[in-house]
Design a protein that fits this description.
Structural class: alpha/beta
CATH architecture of one domain: 3-Layer(aba) Sandwich
Number of helices: 6
CATH superfamily of one domain: P-loop containing nucleotide triphosphate hydrolases
Number of strands: 6
Order of helices and strands: EHEHEHHEHEEH
Radius of gyration: 17 Å
Bound molecules: guanosine-5'-diphosphate, magnesium ion
Helix content: 25-40%
Shape: globular
Strand order of the largest sheet: 2-1-3-4-6-5
CATH class of one domain: Alpha Beta
């Protein structure tokens, strides 16, 4: 196939997906996706391509918190994402699951502690993507907004709840590529470009290994 492989960037709205995309494309001024809220009830799956970029970027909204299908619109979007991944999973060489550090505690409290019928953050999505063997990196974005004290507390909490769902989150520096056990995370700030070099490097590592194995 002459098609370029795809990078998945997935997460709830406002976590920073478009901002991260803008940092990855060679010509940010040609990236038309607006940074900011994009309300709307339809899911548009439209890859971002640029001539000089060796891969495509697909930005998806992630899926929600319900175990039941009570919320029809969210269920509809979830079904579209599931169908898309089922059909195209072999095109994806890497996936970035983006979280907003300032929302993590709230979401864990609301969907893990207070309600046992729901699944917080993107745990359901992460296991789904792992089933399709798409290598993943959890991006903890907006770290510029948290103190280092809060950051440590939030990360500790996230790691603990993750273990409840069977995931071991490990810092990218401590990750050895064993996706059956571990998922790497990276602290990030799109506005400050914190760890952007590390992110670009790991993307290219996975891109090369995907191409080698094709
Ligand atoms: N402080 C801070 N703001 C950010 C960061 N990343 C994104 N934002 C802001 O968060 C808002 C939503 O970002 P956007 O990229 O549109 O999120 P998306 O909905 O996931 O695509 C925008 O106002 C961004 O400027 C970050 O790392 N730090
Ligand atoms: Mg966006």
């Amino acid at each position: 196939m002459s098609q370029k492989p795809s990078l998945l960037i997935i997460g709830n709205s406002n976590v920073g997906k478009s901002s991260i995309t803008k940092l990855l494309v060679p010509k940010p001024s040609e990236f038309k996706g607006k940074v900011g809220k994009t309300p709307g009830s339809t899911l548009l799956i439209k890859p971002i391509t640029q001539a000089q970029m060796p891969y495509k970027i697909v930005d998806l909204p992630g899926f929600g918190y319900m175990k039941s299908s009570s919320h029809r619109r969210e269920e509809h979007i979830k079904q579209k994402i599931v169908k898309h991944i089922e059909k195209h999973h072999t095109d994806y060489f890497f996936g970035l699951v983006v979280l907003n550090i300032l929302r993590i505690e709230d979401e864990l409290n609301k969907y893990y502690i207070e309600n046992t019928e729901t699944i917080p953050l993107s745990f359901e999505l992460i296991s789904f993507l792992m089933e399709y063997q798409i290598p993943l990196l959890i991006i903890i974005n907006k770290i510029d907004k948290a103190s280092s004290f809060d950051k440590r507390r939030i990360l500790r909490y996230l790691i603990k709840v993750s273990q409840h769902y069977g995931f071991d989150l490990v810092h990218l520096n401590d990750f050895y590529g064993d996706y059956l056990v571990n998922i790497p995370y990276l602290e990030f700030s799109a506005t400050e470009k914190t760890n952007l070099g590390t992110l670009k490097k790991i993307i290219h590592t996975y891109l090369s290994s995907y191409k080698r194995n094709k």
